[in-house]
Amino acid sequence: MTTRFRLIQVACVWVVLIAHSPSGVNANEVVARTSGGDLRAGAAVADITPPLGELVVGGFEPFPAAVIHDKLHARCLVLDDGRTQLGFVICDSVGIPREIFDEAREEIAEQTTLLPQNVLMAATHTHSATRANTEKYRPVLVRGIVESVRLAMANLEPAKIGWSGIDEPSQVFNRRWYVSDPDLRRNPYGGVDQVRMNPVRNHPSLVKPAGPIDPEISVLSVQSSDGRPIAVLANYSLHYVGNVNKGDVSADYFGVFAERIAELLDTKSANPPFVGLLTNGTSGDINNVNFREPRSSEERYEKINLVADLVANHVKEACDNIEYNERVTLGSQHRELTLKRRKPDATTRNYIAEVLAKSDDSPTYHAQERYHGAAAQRQFEGPDEVAVPLQAFRIGNLAIAALPFEVFVEIGLELKEKTPFADTFTIELANSSEGYLPTPAQHELGGYETWLGTNRVQKDASVLIVEQVLDMFNQLAKEPAVK
Ligand SMILES: [Zn+2]
């Protein structure tokens, strides 16, 4: 079969699923490839640093990139058991729209033997990266993603693999809080929520966090058959760390981790170079701020270095104790799920119209009412549905889910609890960037991540997604593991 023909066939698989099924998913058409055998692995890195002047988008107000503090990278790991190849590409970006990932996916299919649906691409969610979809930057990003995969494929060699998890609860905090003062819970649509995102630290109105945390650092470690580290892919449910200079481009703690773990594993002179990848878990409602304590006076980048060092040291410890295997079962599943997009009701639309018609010096009910009003208006005018890509990988008795949202931690915890596999983790902002994904219970509480525009899909989307992911896991689990 020619590459071109396979590409067209595969592209159809990603798209056609939606059209044929009332629920948006047709299980019969889902491609499942599970196999097992002697492992080969390769890893590589490509530069995706944006040009200066592109807009840094992590904060509320985009700001032109003025300094490259540290370079941004696409980091790739490829696993191959002789029949199935899986690729991971982790990009230092705040979020990458689906059309950019898909453009890279098509080029990967043309230039390599990797099946496009077997490539998991994700953004780390560093807040000090620039907008992905600009005329200048988009080609840099696509080229980097494709290059990292081509180089990783060229580096494939006999390998062994192992995984484990280790807890570090001290750097993750639920950022949604019950606060006693209703004025602090106002929303931009004229109402009062039950909870507030990022309340003032150490404030007398703080009651308790509105949700849990996930303390686990998951670790997937790959070595050459003679024990040289090839790559480590870790996963932690932490939004990002931050505290960089305004206008700095930086990979945040994800980039420092990659450097630090290379040092700790003593791989600085390895050839091919060792690759550390830190993926973002389910951190839609999790950040690095201890709200019970007053703000401390850290230097810029101090906390980034501290958290990266702590996580890297845990990962090193995990790597030292992992049992490695040269034979492993690899598998992949993917689906498209069609979700309804949320729309403002008539009352909210009237309220927004009034807000947007106000003069600039009029008093406001909520500081960002205009911004969120405009976002809700765009939702109203936009399409009624969106098809989102869901993906699940199996590596032995480890399962990895890939979801295209900023996923609430409860969802990752539920998948870890209900998975049929011994170990499981989720990579967020994968294969697209579709806004926040709260649970229905968190929607009831309100707060920033549930507002129209920050959350764009139906309120029970997480229930449908968990159902689909668990079904994909169960399909993958049916294949017996290799001996
Ligand atoms: Zn964010």
Helix- and strand-based class? alpha+beta
Helix content: 25-40%
Radius of gyration: 22 Å
Domain module count: 2
**Anisotropy-based shape:** globular
Terminal-residue CA separation: 31 Å
Would you report the number of β strands? Answer: 26
Contiguous runs where pLDDT drops below 50 for at least 5 residues: 1-34
Protein described:
InterPro entries: NEUT/ALK_ceramidase_N (IPR031329). It is a single chain. With 483 residues, this protein is an alpha+beta fold. It folds into two domains: 3-174 and 207-340 and 384-478, no CATH class; 346-381. The protein is 29% helix and 26% strand. It contains ten helices and 26 strands. It has helices spanning 3-19, 98-111, 137-154, 252-264, 302-321, 346-357, 369-381, 409-418, 440-445, 461-478; strands spanning 33-34, 37-38, 40-47, 55-56, 63-64, 67-68, 73-80, 85-91, 119-123, 157-167, 173-174, 176-179, 196-197, 206-209, 216-224, 229-236, 248-249, 275-280, 286-287, 327-328, 330-340, 385-395, 398-402, 406-407, 423-427, 436-437. A hairpin with a 4-residue loop joins strand 15 and strand 16. Helix 6 packs across helix 7 (369-381) and helix 8 (409-418) runs parallel beside helix 10. It is globular, with a radius of gyration of 22 Å. It binds zinc ion (ZN). Residues 125, 127, 239 line the site of zinc ion.
Write the layout of secondary structure elements.
Layout: H1 3-19, E1 33-34, E2 37-38, E3 40-47, E4 55-56, E5 63-64, E6 67-68, E7 73-80, E8 85-91, H2 98-111, E9 119-123, H3 137-154, E10 157-167, E11 173-174, E12 176-179, E13 196-197, E14 206-209, E15 216-224, E16 229-236, E17 248-249, H4 252-264, E18 275-280, E19 286-287, H5 302-321, E20 327-328, E21 330-340, H6 346-357, H7 369-381, E22 385-395, E23 398-402, E24 406-407, H8 409-418, E25 423-427, E26 436-437, H9 440-445, H10 461-478
Helix pairs in contact: 2-3, 4-5, 6-7, 8-10
Residues 125, 127, 239 line the site of zinc ion.
Protein name: Neutral/alkaline non-lysosomal ceramidase
InterPro entries: NEUT/ALK_ceramidase_N
Pfam families: Ceramidase_alk
